[in-house]
Specification:
- It is a single chain.
- The strands form six sheets. Strands 1, 2, 5, 6, 7, 8 and 19 form a seven-stranded mixed β-sheet that branches. A five-stranded parallel β-sheet has the order 10-17-11-12-13, covered by helices on one side. A three-stranded antiparallel β-sheet has the order 14-15-16, with no helix packed on it.
- Strand 14 and strand 15 form a beta hairpin.
- It starts with a strand and ends in a 7-residue tail after the last helix.
- The protein folds into two domains: 182 residues, FAD/NAD(P)-binding domain; 147 residues, FAD/NAD(P)-binding domain (3-Layer(bba) Sandwich), CATH 3.50.50.60.
- With 395 residues, the protein is α/β, with parallel strands linked by helices.
- The structure holds flavin-adenine dinucleotide.
C-alpha cells in the first residue's frame, strides 16, 4: 500500500463512503483515494430504533466494510491516532504514517457512555438498554417484551447527539407495543437534558401533542448522571432547579452523552467545543484550505443526521475539486436535514428543515401529521436509498 494519496478520507461511515464514491467517479482521482477506518462493518444506524422495537432484524442493518468501499478507492483498516495538518500527515494506531494532498474528515461522533456513573458495567443487563450500539440493540427488544409494569424511561443528554429524535421514536413505538399487548401498568417517560423538545416549532408542537395524547411524561433539563443496575434506579440532575432525583425503572433506554472524537479534540482542527471547525456553507476547514469535513464530527449548526450527511455529500466533492483546480468554491450547503419519527408501528412523521430552523418539506403533504407512507419510507425506502443511492454516489 502506498504512503501518499491525493485524497485521504478519515472514516468510512455515511459521509466518508458517500464522498469517496463521488470522488472515485472522477477519472483523474481513480486509485488516488484512500479511506481509513478501523471498523469491520458499515451500519445503517437509522434502522437501530426499529430493531429495538422489534420491527427490523439487526443483521439487516450492516454490511462488511469492504463491500461498501467504491471501485477506484483503497481501504486501510486501521484506527487513526493523530492528524498533523501542517505536515499533511495522519498517523495510524500501529505507527505508520500516510501523507495526503487533500484530507476529508468524516469521523462521526463519539459516544461517551463512561460519563454516566455506573452505566458501562450494567449496560445490556438489569433492563438497561441502548439503541446506539449494534451489539446491544436487540437487548432493547428482549427487555421490552418482558416488561409488565413500572417506569419505562428513555433518556437524552444535554450534548448534541446523532439521530436526534431516536428516543422519542422509541417511546412512541413502545407505547403502541404495550397497548397491543394489553400491558397497562407501565409508565412511559422521557427525561431529557435539553431545554427544548425540538428546535423547530412546528414539529415541537406535534411532539407535545403526541406525548399528551399517549400520556407519556416528559421532563426537560434533566440529565441522567448515574445508573444503579442491580437496584434499577436512575439518578437525574436537573439544570434548572439544581436538584438530584432518583427514579426507579423497569426499563431504561439510554442515549449517551456525545462529543467530537478525541482525535479531533486533540488536534489543531477543532473549534473551542472540540468539533471540526468548518465553513457551514462550503464544508472547507476554516484554517486549512486542503481539508474538508462532513457529518457528525463537524461544527455545522444543524441536527446531526444521516439525511444531513446525504445533502453535504453533494456539496463537499464539488468544492474539493474546485479547490484542487484553484477555483472559487461555489457549492453551498443550506443546513438541510430530516428527522423521520415513527409515532406507532405503521405511522410516522418527518421533520425537514435547514439552518433557518423553518420547515422545508419536500413531500406534497403536511409532514408533521401521521402518515403510513412516511413509515414505509423510513422502514423500507430509506435503507434502499442509502445502500444503493447515497453510498454509491447516486443520490
Ligand atoms: C440510534 C440511531 C438512530 C438514528 N436515526 C437516524 C434517522 O432516523 N435518520 C437519519 O438521517 N440519521 C439517523 N441517525 C444518524 C446517522 O446514522 C448519522 O448521523 C450518520 O451516520 C453520520 O455519518 P458520519 O459519516 O458523520 O458518521 P458515521 O456514519 O458514524 O461514521 C464515522 C466512521 O468513522 C470511523 N472512525 C471513528 N473514529 C475513527 C478513528 N479514530 N480511526 C478510524 N476510523 C474512525 C467509525 O468507525 C465510523 O465508520 C441515527 C443514528 C443512530 C445511532
Amino acid at each position: 500500500m502506498k504512503q501518499h494519496y491525493k485524497v485521504v478520507i478519515l472514516g468510512g461511515g455515511s459521509g466518508g463512503i458517500a464522498v469517496a464514491s463521488r470522488l472515485a467517479k472522477k477519472v483523474s482521482l481513480k486509485n488516488k483515494i484512500l479511506i481509513i477506518d478501523h471498523a469491520d462493518y458499515h451500519a445503517f444506524q437509522p434502522s437501530w430504533p426499529l430493531v429495538g422495537s422489534g420491527a427490523e432484524k439487526k443483521e439487516h442493518t450492516r454490511k462488511k466494510m469492504r463491500r461498501v468501499v467504491p471501485h477506484g478507492a483503497e481501504f486501510m483498516q486501521h484506527k487513526v491516532s493523530r492528524i498533523q495538518p501542517i505536515e499533511r500527515l495522519v498517523t495510524l494506531d500501529h505507527g505508520q504514517t500516510v501523507s495526503y494532498d487533500f484530507l476529508v474528515v468524516a469521523l462521526g461522533i463519539q459516544l461517551d457512555f463512561d460519563q454516566i456513573e455506573g452505566l458501562t458495567e450494567t449496560l445490556g443487563k438489569n433492563n438497561v438498554c441502548t439503541n446506539y450500539l449494534y451489539d446491544y440493540v436487540d437487548y432493547t427488544y428482549d427487555t421490552l417484551r418482558h416488561v409488565t409494569a413500572g417506569n419505562v424511561i428513555a433518556t437524552k443528554p444535554n450534548s448534541p447527539i446523532k439521530g436526534g429524535v431516536a428516543p422519542e421514536n422509541s417511546l412512541f413505538t413502545f407505547h403502541d407495543f404495550f397497548h397491543k399487548q394489553g400491558v397497562r401498568d407501565v409508565k412511559l417517560m422521557l427525561r431529557s437534558g435539553n431545554h427544548t423538545l425540538f428546535p423547530v416549532e412546528k414539529y415541537r408542537d406535534t411532539l407535545i401533542e403526541l406525548f399528551t395524547q399517549k400520556q407519556i411524561d416528559y421532563t426537560l433539563n434533566d440529565e441522567l448522571v448515574k445508573v444503579d443496575g442491580p437496584r434499577q434506579t436512575a439518578t437525574f440532575f436537573n439544570y434548572q432547579n439544581r436538584t438530584t432525583t432518583e427514579v426507579p425503572f423497569s426499563m431504561l433506554l439510554v442515549t449517551p452523552p456525545m462529543s467530537a472524537p478525541d482525535i479531533i479534540k486533540e488536534s489543531t482542527l477543532a473549534d473551542e467545543a472540540g468539533w471540526l471547525d468548518v465553513n457551514p456553507f462550503t464544508l472547507q476547514h476554516v484554517r486549512h484550505q486542503n481539508i474538508f469535513g462532513i457529518g457528525d464530527c463537524t461544527n455545522l449548526p444543524t441536527v446531526k443526521m444521516g439525511a444531513a450527511v446525504r445533502k453535504q455529500a453533494h456539496i463537499l466533492p464539488k468544492n474539493l475539486i474546485s479547490q484542487m483546480k484553484g477555483r472559487k468554491l461555489k457549492a453551498h450547503y443550506t443546513g438541510m436535514t430530516a428527522c423521520p419519527i415513527a409515532t406507532e408501528y405503521g405511522e410516522a412523521i418527518m421533520a425537514e428543515f435547514d439552518y433557518s430552523l423553518k420547515p422545508k418539506e419536500t413531500l406534497p403533504f403536511n409532514q408533521a401529521r401521521n402518515s403510513k407512507f412516511l413509515y414505509l419510507f423510513k422502514k423500507r425506502l430509506l435503507p434502499i436509498m442509502y445502500w444503493y443511492g447515497m453510498l454509491k454516489g447516486r443520490s
